[in-house]
Amino acid sequence: MEEGKIAIAIDGPAAAGKSTVAKLVAKKLTYIYVDTGAMYRALTLKAIKQHVSLESEADLAALLTSTTIELKQSENGQKVYLDQQDVTVDIRSLEVTNNVSYVAKHASVRKDMVKRQQALTEKRGVVMDGRDIGTHVIPDAEVKIFLHATVEERAKRRHEENISKGFNSNIEELKEEIKQRDLIDTKRESAPLIKAEDAVEIDTTSLSIDDVARQILSEALNVLKS
Ligand SMILES: Nc1ncnc2c1ncn2[C@@H]1O[C@H](COP(=O)(O)OP(=O)(O)OP(=O)(O)O)[C@@H](O)[C@H]1O
Ligand SMILES: Nc1ccn([C@@H]2O[C@H](COP(=O)(O)O)[C@@H](O)[C@H]2O)c(=O)n1
Q1: What is the distance between the alpha carbons of residues 6 and 1, in angstroms, rounded to a whole number?
Q2: Which sites bind ATP (predicted)?
Q3: Binding residues for ATP
Q4: Would you say residue 226 lies in a domain?
Q5: Which of 53, 66, 95, 139 stands 20 to 30 A from 45 (CA)?
Q6: CA-derived radius of gyration, the chain
Q7: Nearest to 43 by CA among 28, 59, 31
Q8: Among all ligands shown, which has an atom nearest to the Cα of 41?
């Protein structure tokens, strides 16, 4: 471990607030923030554009082998480059969101992604969010957090976010999309979404963003002081 620096793993279901608080915690500690979902989204975008079957594990794994995905720190978090093209906005499309879990369920895709993600954690000083960070990517993370909230609250938050960005939004459709993604992510055979045994569970349903970030920082400071 680089002296005085730790790894913080944040997992949880869709729209639980992982990236929002991960960014805040990373900023406060001047750590790198890594949104691993963006990597699965980038591969999904490329597969859709190139008409690669999302059912074909071999084709997706081969596509990933010839793909570069770079995550660059920016003022507001992270910019995502797919084969040197900025896809930060494109990977958030409804089409990518509705298909990404079908890509992420394949074991060989995950194996390659996990290797790429682990390469980013070698020096510690990282806050990484996703679905399998505490269980597979950084099983020895000094701080592990599992965030969740009711599906109603998560859909409401996403709806408010869409409205504030001027996007069309339907709260019932969001609820279904979130439920469907959670179902695929928790039921897949390879590294399903599950709380690591040693993760601290935080139900954010009635907590503010600052409350959640404070709790995670407090866990981190306890480790850093010990
Ligand atoms: N504790 C909270 N209270 C109120 N709103 C929150 C809270 N945490 C997050 N939000 C809001 O909820 C929305 C979803 O949060 P965020 O994008 O961080 O979730 P996520 O877990 O990273 O989602 P995904 O896994 O789908 O990428 C954002 O608009 C964010 O501002
Ligand atoms: N470590 C991870 C991260 C993400 N996924 C899959 O990607 C989807 C999109 O993630 P977001 O965080 O951007 O919503 C997610 O639903 C998972 O299917 C993953 O498997 N492992």
Answers
A1: 7
A2: 12-20
A3: 12-20
A4: no
A5: 139
A6: 17
A7: 59
A8: 2
